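Run log, item B.
One chain of 423 residues. Sequence copied directly from the ordering sheet:
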Amino acid sequence: MKQRLFKSFFLSAMAVFLICITVFAALLYVNMNDVTRQTLDVQAQLAAQTVETGGLAALEQLSLEDCRIRWLSPEGEVLYDSAPQLHTAATQQVPLADGSALEVSNVGYTLFQLLLQSFTPLLFVAALAAVLSALLATRAAKALTEPLNRIDFIHPDERDVDEELKPLVRRLAEQNRQILSQMEDLGREHDRQDRLRREFTANVSHELKTPLTSINGFAELIRDGLVRPEDVQRFAGKICDEARRLMDLVGDILRLSRLEERGRDLAMEPLSLREEARLVKEQLTGLALRRGVTVTLAGSEGQIVASKKIVAEILHNLTDNAIQYNRPGGSVTITVSESRDTATVAVQDTGIGIPKEELPRIFERFYRVDKSHSRELGGTGLGLSIVKHGAVCLGAQLRVESDLGVGTTITVQFPRAGKEQSP
């Protein structure tokens, strides 16, 4: 910084010096021209009077300093030239009564000649100006950088600096506080993510171990001949159920991992929420019949631009949960609505409901409100986590309303522009 300041000050000083020299030369040139014209006018009038009173003889006796006098006939013939060998600069011509003309020219030094003769002094002045500029630039740069170098950028204190630098110190202190706060937030977020990672790993291990243990136990019983022939089919069915549960769990984990990836490209396309909900309703018709639950679809089209796969996963998990956690003879209503900027789908059930204190945690991975009922239904505990991360990927907003013993409504509001937002 000190070198940049020195360079800036030095170049500025030299630029000012050159500008001053140029202005001085211009003013000197103008002044010399004015003086020369006035002098030539006076000398021309004097020479004219001399010729008219004394003729050529008197003109030859006339001596004008730094002047060349020429007398020209009416035809332009040179009648007299006081210094034919000299080159002239400025000229003043005076017509005489007989039609001839008298021409007086300046043979003195021009401004350019004067500057050439003054080259050595000017060079000395330029060198002196450069030295003085360098000294002043060094001193100015030092005067500016030393107070800055004294600032403690880790713990800036206004009492240690000049008045002019106090606003800078205040900004540094504020930035330090912001950086410290952000670092603390990052540290807390890192700790939270680390805790979630450990919990996720432990939960995955537990969830995978449970069906594997069952499969292994049933298979060992059959292998060792400890199962009666008439029970083999029932035990094999349990193995198939646990294997299917294991496959569902692995599938949900993979889907959740894909949703949590950052920087991936989503295949965005125009969609109708009503049409996607209709397809999900058809897919879950068998489950609804087995559970004795009626599924109804209502509302408008709900046109959005989004990832078809993620929207399908969101709707499938919400509808599947609404059916699974319902009561026999209950109902599930899927309602689609839209406004100018958003399209909304709400999945309402008449199921067991969720306690108010449990609502903030229902989107956590492997979290179950009713663990015994969930295991009886074979759920993986990842359905609502998939819904949450899918909504984040699409920039959608989630809202949950539930009354214990009455039912639950989960609403997803999608932006119609289809812009992906960061969580």
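Observations after the first pass:
- The longest helix spans residues 2-61.
- The chain has ten helices and eleven strands.
Flagged for discussion on Thursday.
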